[in-house]
Amino acid sequence: MLPAHTEASFRHEQLTRLQMEHANYSERLDHLVMNPLHSPADQWEEIRLKKMKLKLKDEIEHLRGD
Fold first, then answer.
1. Residue 25: other Cβ atoms inside 10 A
2. What whole-number distance in Å separates Cα of residue 37 and Cα of residue 43?
3. Is there a contact between 17 and 34 (Cβ–Cβ < 8 Å)?
4. What is the pLDDT of residues 8-18, one digit of tens each?
5. DSSP states of the chain
6. Closest Cα partner for 54 from 24, 22, 16?
7. Is residue 1 predicted with pLDDT exceeding 60?
8. pLDDT digit string (tens) for 20-54?
């Protein structure tokens, strides 16, 4: 078992990484949605990005809740 300060540091690093990844998906999604000419591939990418963001949000909430 890791010492408390090491575990807290590890958890903080994980949380930071997940938040950055979530922000990256948000930015990509914003750019995609701003384009008025959506191809079917763009629509699938939009759905994929939204699902990825939700998954990361759940992981972030799980880390904050523990």
1. 20
2. 10
3. no
4. 888 999 999 99
5. ---HHHHHHHHHHHHHHHHHHHHHHHHHHHHHHH-S---HHHHHHHHHHHHHHHHHHHHHHHHHH-
6. 22
7. no
8. 999 999 999 999 989 888 899 999 999 999 999 99
